[in-house]
Amino acid sequence: MITIISGTNRKASNTRKVSLEYQRLLLEKNIEARLLLLDEIDMTVRNQVFIETENELLKPARKFIIVMPEYNGSYPGILKLMMDNTDVSKVWWHKKVLLTGVATGRAGNLRGMEHLTGSLLHMKMLVHPNRLPISLVDKLLDADNHFADASALRAIDTQLEEFLEF
What we know:
Strands 1, 2, 3, 4, 5 and 6 form a six-stranded parallel beta sheet that branches. By secondary structure, this protein is an alpha/beta fold. It contains seven helices and six strands.
C-alpha cells in the first residue's frame, strides 16, 4: 500500500492539488494510493482520530509519497509534528519514501527536501534518490488542477515509475 501525505495544513494549497494529482496519475497506472491530507485531520494531538488515521493510513503503508511546500527554507512544522506524534518504529522504520517539493518560487523546496531527508534517514527510512522539486507549481497546473506542462509530467512519470520499482 502507498500513502500519499499532503504535507501542509493550509487550506486549498498547491500541495493538496499536487498530492491529488499524484494519486490520479498513479490510478492511471492501476496503482491505488491512499491520501492523508493534513488540512483535513488535526495531527497535532495524539487523540482517537489521530490513532485511527495512523492505523488506517500510516502503519499499513509500505511506501509513502510526501508532497511538501517550502516554508521558510524548509518543510512545514505540521509535517514534523505529525511524524513526531506517531509510533515511529511501527509507522516509519524500514519503509520506502518518495519526496516531492512544491513551490511557487524557482527552487521547488530543494532545501526542505534535504532537511526532511536527514530526519527520514534517522527514522530508518529508505529515501528514493529522485527527489523532485516542482518549481513555479502555480503555473504548471491547469484549471482542473492537472499538470498541463509536458516536461513536468515526464519528470513526474519517471519519478513514479522509478519509485514503483524501488
